[in-house]
Amino acid sequence: MTEYRSRIEQKLSDALSPVSLAIEDDSHRHAGHAGAHPDGGGETHFNVRIVSASFEGLSRVARQRMVYQVLADELKERVHALSLVTVTPAEADKLESA
Questions:
Q1: What is the helix (H) or strand (E) element at residue 3, kind and residue range?
Q2: How many angstroms separate the CA atoms of 54 and 48, rounded?
Q3: pLDDT tops 60 at residue 31
Q4: What is the CATH number for 28?
Q5: Any idea what DSSP says for residue 85?
Q6: Is residue 19 packed enough to be buried (19+ CB in 10 Å), middle (13-18) or exposed (0-12)?
Q7: Closest by alpha carbon to 37, among 45, 47, 25?
Q8: Which of 37, 43, 69, 92 is deepest in the core (most CB within 10 A)?
Q9: What H or E segment, with its residue span, contains residue 82?
Q10: Torsion angle of alpha carbons 2, 31, 69, 96, nearest 10°?
């Protein structure tokens, strides 16, 4: 596991106690784009799917703000973009049974 992916996983796990957490480094699809790291080493663009009871009663925007706050240091450093799916356990169950 790479440094930033590990940091993202640890911080989100500690802060939001997710039922499920999937993190994918999608940086290779953004080579040469704005925010791509000049060393080409990746870890600039991530897809994150997190299922957490911490999101209960919050809007989609409030959930995303919560994640951005948890990952503020990573976003200031190397991480340029996060694609987020933030759902509650009940929402995840609904999606899986649909």
A1: helix 3-16
A2: 16
A3: no
A4: 3.30.300.90
A5: E
A6: middle
A7: 45
A8: 43
A9: strand 81-87
A10: -80
Query: What residue type is assigned to position 22 of the chain?
Result: A
- Mean pLDDT value of segment 32-60: 78
Nearest one of 82, 74, 22 to 51, comparing CA atoms = 22
Radius of gyration of the chain (CA): 14
C-alpha dihedral sign at 24, 54, 79, 60: positive
Number of structural domains found in the chain = 1
Per-residue DSSP letters for 7-59? Answer: HHHHHHHHHH--SEEEEEE-GGGGTTSTT--TT----SEEEEEEE-GGGTT--
pLDDT at residue number 60 = 96
Measured CA to CA, the distance from residue 57 to residue 87 in angstroms comes to: 11
Structural domain span for residue 22: 3-97
